[in-house]
Amino acid sequence: SAGGPREPIDLVRYVGNRSSGRMGVALAAEAKRRGAEVVLVYANGSVPPPAGVEVVPAPTAADMKRELLARVDADVFVMAAAIADYRPSNPETGKRPKDREPWTLTLEPTDDVLAELGERRRNGQILVGFAADAGEAGLERARQKLANKRGNLFVFNDVSQSGIGFEAEDNEVVLLSAAGEREIGRRSKGDTAVAILDEVEGLLEGD
């Protein structure tokens, strides 16, 4: 999965995030290069998908959940999309006209697609989660996600640092698995995808 779902507020406005889809697209391209059959579930990305992969649009978190759970038998899930944690609870069907009154929104949690995939994960299936967060506290939350969501591998990137993460060409990540933690220094997202999928191949081979 790649990109950032947008949760409607009204007909023209939405709650979203800064994900460009670049990291997920790089992972899809690298997986295709290695010979995988790739389906890219893509939400509102600003970069074109790679050639030779099936692209499934998923503009909202609900769409993302539906399309991912429809493919629950995949050998590997790489969940690079920045799926929204919250959505407006009562989006308006038309466009709210501008006036001089405050507009208060109530947000409700979206479903945790990664956790549901973890609950359904079968023996031999690989589940890779991403945690875009900030600082040492964010890294600790990524460690907790690894423990709680039944994934094989979590990719933490510190989006408080300039020049990496959202909207950037480069990334710098920590790979977390049952075997320990491995820092991947700053490099292009294409090269980061190589490092992540090297780790996935090791998991598939049981290393």
Please characterize this protein's 3D structure.
- By secondary structure, the chain is of the alpha/beta class.
- Helix content is 29%, strand content 27%.
- It has 5 helices and 12 strands.
- It has helices at 22-33, 61-69, 113-120, 135-148, 189-204; strands at 2-3, 7-8, 14-15, 39-43, 54-57, 76-79, 86-88, 107-109, 126-133, 153-158, 170-177, 180-188.
- Strands 6-9-10-11-12 form a 5-stranded mixed beta sheet, sandwiched between helices.
- Helix 4 links the parallel strand 9 (126-133) and strand 10.
- Helix 1 (22-33) crosses helix 5.
- The chain is globular and about 60 Å long.
- The model has no long low-confidence stretch (mean pLDDT 94).
Please give a quick description of this structure.
The chain is an alpha/beta fold.
